[in-house]
Amino acid sequence: MSLAVGLLLVLCVAAAAFVLARGRATGLRVGGGAGRQRLNSLPFYHGAYAFLWAVIPALLFLAAWAPIQQALITDAVMSSPAGQALPDFDLARDSILSEARAVASGSSDIAFNPQAQALVPVFQGATTRFSLIGGGFALLLALAGAGWAWSRIGIDLRARAGVEKWLMGLLVAASMIAILTTFGIVLSLLFETMRFFQKVPAADFLFGTSWSPQVAIRADQAGSSGAFGSVPLFWGTVFIGAIIAMIVAIPLGLMSAIFLTQYAHARMRKVLKPLLEILAGVPTVVYGYFAALTVAPLVRDLGLGIGISNASSESALAAGLVMGVMIIPFVSSMADDSIAAVPQAMRDGSLALGATRSETIRKVILPAALPGVVGGVLLAVSRAIGETMIVVMAAGLSANLTANPFNSVTTVTTQIVQLLTGDQEFDSPKTLAAFALGLVLFLVTLVLNLIALRVVRKYREAYE
């Protein structure tokens, strides 16, 4: 019996507990008129009470047992005669174990290594044994929980309060998982970044202007020390995502929102707004192809036409323009909702005082809607900073510190993908540099969020 079968049995027990508990609670309604007994909670809550007591403890056990089972299976395999005959070299041993595990689980048909093939029956036997233990114990927990809830079914049982406590606990657990996940991401980045800074000075990384993370195997090879100056990467990120893309997205998005909310007819708005928001659903690889095959050649020809001889077919301008078009819906949608939420009394008061429609928009509506506009711009900037595919296909991979939009540049996220692609050694400065880039990018984004939050709070207090 696998854990999946155990989970199915637990759900069946919980469903049966729900039906039986609800039926028993319904049967407690005896008598008629003034002598009729009234349940403290509806029968549905009695059934839900039994269901939750049957399913939640068993599911928590299965969630905790799954990683424990994998460790027990590995220990059982390693303690077998075939496991003890494995080589001492960690990489070779892990490769053999992975191959045997894949065949035993059915994800692979045959093991090419004879030692891996010999381990397949051992893996299958250990998996069956520990799955039976885990699934059986989870089933016993489900039966025990259902039986305990069944014994409490009665007229005075506050089943609704019990169900709400379970649901509150689940909501708190979900919130804690999100918070702990965030902390785990930060700590993992922090620890790996500390390892990186033990190999590369922090000043060289933060203030260096040369990025060449190739670390040679031999000391006599060229570039064996590597160059980990991150300034070109962060400049490329800012140049493409926060300057060029925002120059395109903010005016077009904001003017689109103003037109749709203040000038467009209701029938036209119903057509144009969904068409504009379709841009947010286009896959980024499609934008990348469009940028590489259509926009980039046009930008290169434009550069050559105005006398820029070194205009490249991979340029920051091409990537920034397409990225700006991609994030227009983020600015437009948030601005649209914020402008539409401005009280009509503010518009009417401005127009009654003699202001024109354009003056009302500039001096009343936009200042009142500024928190939502700032939120949309921040969301668009975050989306642009995290974009990778368009940069790879239209801007290239060259870490150039240049203000010429017709030159090739790269971004932080693009380099992170490049550093972690393929088989990498996680003790190498080249791979650890990806974590340092991620941590610095996270801190920069956090600072931008705090600044935007301060701006939003200030203007929200002024207009509420």
UniProtKB/TrEMBL annotation:
<feature type="transmembrane region" description="Helical">
    <location>
        <begin position="316"/>
        <end position="343"/>
    </location>
</feature>
<feature type="transmembrane region" description="Helical">
    <location>
        <begin position="364"/>
        <end position="385"/>
    </location>
</feature>
<dbReference type="InterPro" id="IPR011864">
    <property type="entry name" value="Phosphate_PstC"/>
</dbReference>
<dbReference type="InterPro" id="IPR035906">
    <property type="entry name" value="MetI-like_sf"/>
</dbReference>
<feature type="transmembrane region" description="Helical">
    <location>
        <begin position="166"/>
        <end position="191"/>
    </location>
</feature>
<feature type="transmembrane region" description="Helical">
    <location>
        <begin position="47"/>
        <end position="68"/>
    </location>
</feature>
<keyword id="KW-0472">Membrane</keyword>
<comment type="function">
    <text>Part of the binding-protein-dependent transport system for phosphate; probably responsible for the translocation of the substrate across the membrane.</text>
</comment>
<protein>
    <recommendedName>
        <fullName>Phosphate transport system permease protein</fullName>
    </recommendedName>
</protein>
<keyword id="KW-1003">Cell membrane</keyword>
<feature type="domain" description="ABC transmembrane type-1">
    <location>
        <begin position="235"/>
        <end position="452"/>
    </location>
</feature>
<feature type="transmembrane region" description="Helical">
    <location>
        <begin position="233"/>
        <end position="254"/>
    </location>
</feature>
<keyword id="KW-0592">Phosphate transport</keyword>
<feature type="transmembrane region" description="Helical">
    <location>
        <begin position="432"/>
        <end position="456"/>
    </location>
</feature>
<keyword id="KW-0813">Transport</keyword>
<feature type="transmembrane region" description="Helical">
    <location>
        <begin position="275"/>
        <end position="296"/>
    </location>
</feature>
<dbReference type="InterPro" id="IPR002229">
    <property type="entry name" value="RhesusRHD"/>
</dbReference>
<keyword id="KW-0812">Transmembrane</keyword>
<dbReference type="Pfam" id="PF00528">
    <property type="entry name" value="BPD_transp_1"/>
</dbReference>
<dbReference type="Pfam" id="PF12501">
    <property type="entry name" value="DUF3708"/>
</dbReference>
<keyword id="KW-1133">Transmembrane helix</keyword>
<dbReference type="InterPro" id="IPR000515">
    <property type="entry name" value="MetI-like"/>
</dbReference>
<comment type="similarity">
    <text>Belongs to the binding-protein-dependent transport system permease family. CysTW subfamily.</text>
</comment>
<dbReference type="InterPro" id="IPR022182">
    <property type="entry name" value="PstC_N"/>
</dbReference>
<keyword id="KW-0997">Cell inner membrane</keyword>
